[in-house]
Design a protein that fits this description.
- With 334 residues, the chain is of the alpha/beta class.
- Helix content is 50%, strand content 17%.
- The protein is built from 15 helices and twelve strands.
- Strands 6-5-4-7-8-12-11 form a seven-stranded mixed β-sheet, sandwiched between helices. The chain has a three-stranded antiparallel β-sheet with strand order 1-3-2. A two-stranded parallel sheet has the order 9-10.
- It is globular and about 70 Å long.
- The model has no long low-confidence stretch (mean pLDDT 94).
- Pfam families: Dimerisation, Methyltransf_2.
- InterPro entries: COMT-like, COMT_C, COMT_dimerisation, SAM-dependent_MTases_sf, WH-like_DNA-bd_sf, WH_DNA-bd_sf.
- This is Methyltransferase.
Length: 334
């Protein structure tokens, strides 16, 4: 267990290291270094940066193992740093850029103010996050890329570790661009899928499913899950949905799902499930961002999920660990 001083000073250093990481992502340094080492001056020209300032950031990045010196004044990309390349299979570049996006960075910095009065400083300045993103296309693209990258590992775990009913129809509620639904349908060739989301998301989803050769096994339905969801299906997936809302709104969503589902259907919730102990957990880190950005949005424990489900006449039946801090919660009619 680290000494308290080490823990506290380490946290302070994390802010500086993230700032250097954000600079690397924003300036595309990994892409510029992808084909070999460059002199700092040349790298600055390619990245549109000030060379002396860039040199100082590279020194910090080298201490983090993301770049290494390759001769006087020159740097090369390390294997660890390749994760910052835009074309890396598991690239984290968009995720870092999203967390450093101006409004999100503001929200984290204003967390003390949010905690003082219980109301998100982000919402006060920018409005609801999805309304803000809809008005800011560049930020919206970053957010979508971030969510796609975040979902990739979770989706693979979902398809491999959960036994879907072989011939079921699954409704992916607030399914976004359709990457999760596509992965599940590819892994279960007899299943059919319905992606349900807001109208402005629907066209993206149709393009994704068509590109995945799944148009004949799927459909996209536009609507509002606070009003209703498509009825008569066997499986309803809520992936990273409930943590955006307070308990009252979550119960409304779950009741609409319960009303729509087949009598022997099931609800699947893909979220972080917070442990009851004091050990570190990725969900606890994410919960700080939820607190900063949403009014009422929160990560929850198993017991808290069970309580929400009970209010919608559903019973929690299983929790499957998927890795990367996420779990799959299965619920069925009571």
């Amino acid at each position: 267990m680290p000494h308290s001083d080490e823990l506290l000073w380490g946290a302070l250093g994390d802010i500086s290291r993230f700032a250097a990481l954000l600079t690397m992502a924003e300036l595309g340094l990994a892409d510029h270094l992808a084909h070999g080492p460059l002199d700092t001056s040349e790298l600055a020209v390619r990245a549109g940066a000030n060379a002396p300032a860039l040199r100082r950031v590279l020194r910090e990045l080298a201490s983090m193992g993301l770049v290494r010196t390759a001769g006087p004044g020159a740097y090369d990309l390390t294997e660890k740093g390749t994760a910052l390349r835009s074309d890396a299979p598991d690239s984290v570049r968009s995720s870092i850029r999203m967390l450093g996006e101006e409004s999100f960075w503001y929200a984290i910095g204003m967390l003390p103010a949010t905690v003082r009065d219980g109301s998100s400083a982000f919402v006060k300045r920018y409005g609801h996050v999805y309304d803000h993103l809809a008005k800011n296309p560049a930020s919206s693209r970053l957010f979508n890329d971030y969510m796609t990258a975040r979902a990739a590992a979770l989706t693979e775990g979902l398809a491999k570790r959960y036994a879907f009913p072989p011939t079921a129809t699954m409704v992916d509620v607030a399914g976004g661009k359709g990457h999760i639904l596509a992965t599940v349908l590819h892994a279960n060739p007899q299943m059919r899928g319905i992606l349900f989301d807001l109208e402005h998301v629907a066209d993206h989803a149709r393009r994704t499913l068509a590109a995945e050769s799944l148009a004949e096994r799927s459909e996209v339905v536009a609507g509002d899950f606070f009003a209703e969801v498509p009825a008569g299906s066997d499986v309803y997936l809520l992936a990273s949905v409930l943590h955006n809302w307070d308990d009252e709104d979550c119960v409304k969503i779950l009741r609409n799902v319960r009303k729509a589902m087949n009598p022997d259907g099931r609800v699947l919730i893909l979220e972080a499930v917070l442990p009851d102990d004091e050990e570190p957990h990725l969900g606890k880190d994410i919960d700080m961002r939820m607190l900063a950005i949403f009014n009422g949005g929160t990560e929850r424990s198993r017991d808290e999920f069970a309580a929400l489900l009970s209010q919608a006449d559903l019973a929690l039946t299983e929790v499957v660990e998927l890795g990367s801090g996420a779990s799959l919660i299965e619920a069925r009619p009571r």
